[in-house]
Amino acid sequence: MLKVTFLLITLVIGSIEAAKMVCYYDSASQFREGPAKLTLQDLEPALQFCNYLVYGYAAIDPETYQLKPLHKNLDITLNHYRNITNLRRNHPELLILLSVGGDRDLFEETPSSSYLSVLENQAHRNAFINSAIAHLKTYDFDGLDLAWQFPKNKPKIVEHIIRRGWRKFKGWFFSPKLVDENAAEHKQQFTTLVRELTDALKFDGLILTLTMLPHVDPKLFIDVPAIIGNVDFVNLGSYDFQTPDRDPKVADHSAPIYEMFERDPTHNIDYQVQYWLNNSASSNKINIGVPAYGLTWTMSCKSGITGYPPIEKTLGRGAAGKQLRQPGLMSWPEICEKLQADKELGGEDALLRKVGDPRQRYGSYAYRAADKNAHNGLWISYEEPSTAATKASYVFAKGLGGVALFDLSLDDFRGHCAGDKYPILRSIKFKL
């Protein structure tokens, strides 16, 4: 009996230790002003909770197909690459990866074109691989993360059953425009790139990971059985299913765990996870992505007053918060501030009504209906420490590899909300 108990305890401890905490750090946060700017001193307290720090983002030169810094002045001239990898001195077990892509390499009209061009030519792949390894070795990174910018799926319209039936009927006669006419070739070529990268990186003891960006269809571009054995793990972009940029007229939960009634059945974490598992992916190599932010829409007078999603007739991105100053996006501390606002305040500073998720399936949201002048309407789908912990519990229950947090600069790294710094990161780590 004692031997059995000891074995069970050993297995449980082993599974806990195996859970990975992957922390993304977007270097663009260095260009923010005021309390939204994340300095290296601010970053330091988070690293005790991270197994991996993913530094984003590098880019691809469209002429040479070589990996290049996205912000050369910051990364090279100001030596930020080196400053980041030097953080390992105080955290020797931390592995620091350089990520390429991540939907940040957007200086072209078609941000995926350079990434597809790399795949299509052996010389282009060699140029990318050699330059990537040179960057990793020069600046002492532990490996490369491929946040590859494939063409994205088109937004799907949320509509009632009659219009949905009519759209399906029309689909019998008109073929929809393909996301990528050469998707089959690019799928095979990406597999080749991953294999070549793996072989090259292993020679120098470097690792390779894959980040699936939101709205990139793995059916089109990823040969899961061939890829999964050649990467250390995969971080799923299991968030941003509904966004004010893609879906300006309809607000909805942006990162639910499970499928919602009359929604796209693929727009949830569980579907994304099951797809990879059903295609021969090892569960311990799958990490789910969790955002540290909320997405916001502007409610109109026609959006109603209940706040119950989906909210139709919205007017696109919500007003910018006071820290990020970015319409449609709010960091957790910005949201927390609004949830704790003085009840006497009015206008755009008026208190939001929070609606929790007692079933722990879809996430929290908060809203403020438009006033009689059709102003100040706001609807937010967001992550908070409790919902992030619920997703960590899902990871543990499914035996998955861990959680990837997007990203540290959007968590409450100053501890303004409840006193503790990085509350979302802490909630995930403690639950794992």
Note down, in words, how this protein is organized.
This protein is an alpha/beta fold and 432 residues long. It has one domain: TIM Barrel. The strands form 3 sheets. An 8-stranded parallel beta barrel has the order 1-2-4-5-6-7-9-16, surrounded by 5 helices. Strands 12-10-15-14-13 form a 5-stranded antiparallel β-sheet. Helix 13 runs parallel beside helix 14. The longest helix is centred in the middle third of the chain and has 21 residues. The radius of gyration is 22 Å and the shape is globular. 44% of the residues are buried.
Brief account:
32% of the residues lie in helices and 18% in strands. It has helices at 2-18, 40-43, 72-77, 80-85, 113-119, 122-138, 161-171, 183-203, 218-221, 224-228, 269-278, 332-339, 385-398, 423-431, and strands at residues 20-26, 52-60, 67-69, 95-101, 143-147, 207-212, 234-236, 250-251, 286-291, 293-297, 311-312, 329-331, 353-355, 364-368, 378-382, 402-406. The strands form three sheets. Strands 1-2-4-5-6-7-9-16 form an eight-stranded parallel barrel, surrounded by five helices.
CATH topology: TIM Barrel
Full CATH superfamily name: Glycosidases
The averaged pLDDT comes out at: 91
Number of helices: 14
Biggest pleated sheet: 8 strands, parallel, barrel
Give the count of structural domains. Answer: 1
Question: Percent helix among the residues?
Answer: 25-40%
Task: Tell me the series of helices and strands, N- to C-terminal.
Answer: HEHEEHHEHHEHHEHHEEHEEEEHEEEHEH
What structural category characterises the helix and strand content? alpha/beta
